[in-house]
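Notebook, bench 3.
Goal today: get a predicted structure for DUF1853 family protein from Winogradskyella flava so we can plan the truncation constructs. The sequence was checked against the plasmid map this morning, with no discrepancies at the termini. Length recorded as 270 residues. Pasting the sequence as submitted so the record is complete.
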Amino acid sequence: MNKNISYHYMFDGFQNTSLLWKRNSVEHLEQFVVPETSEKFKPKTEDKKLRLGKWVEQFVSFQLQQQSNVNIIEENLQIKIGKQTIGELDLLFLKDKQPFHLEIVYKFYLYDTSKVSANTFDYWIGPNRNDSLTYKLDKLKNKQLPLLYHNETKASLKSFIHTESIKQCVCFKAQLFLPFGKQNICVEPLNKNCISGFYLPFAKIKALEMFQFYIPDKLEWLVTPSDNVTWLNFKTATMRIKEQIEQQRSSMAWLKNEKNELMKCFITWW
């Protein structure tokens, strides 16, 4: 699949991903529930060089455009001081004439058992340890959402909308991965429906020697595993994954067992 990644598989995988929490149960950040659509996704561009986050923004915009009571005002509105870009508003739209500012997030988080913290969010980190849920929540609260009230933003929007009337929400989806063999960890107040698989370090990959592997490209990380791919044996997959591990890049893998059951995991470099 990786040589001809399907937008439709990506879109379906996105729609199948749950919101990371419900309502405003995390840091008082209100989740906006975007209705799913059965319409076939139509990309704005055929350029698959777009990073995953930009595709996700297109997916949300497409979903909203299928709603008769929604009118898109602006997408990816850059806010500048002179020539310097100080930030970007992901999506501005009207729903039943109520203006909304929506920040869109899609993440992959692993539960790091090496951490010790009173804050349960600190345990969730990115596959390469250079991202975290705590960092993203802080960025949303203290940078991305407050940008709406910046003087430059008010100036950009004053001709067609008053920032004081805009309701701010997030669409924050994620896939969560628990340590191999520890699938009973409580993830509350996060949504347990976001649990998508497990992870284990490359040093312990031999525990997976009875599985067949498929190594998806980054854009395919969104996709729900299917049998319609070219599967690799353990030895071949290990060699390919090792190339990424040596560059300190954790690898996602789809796995298939002898019962043809499919699952998703990360093989980490750490």
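Residues 7-196 form one domain. The longest strand covers residues 98-111.
Flagging this for group meeting.
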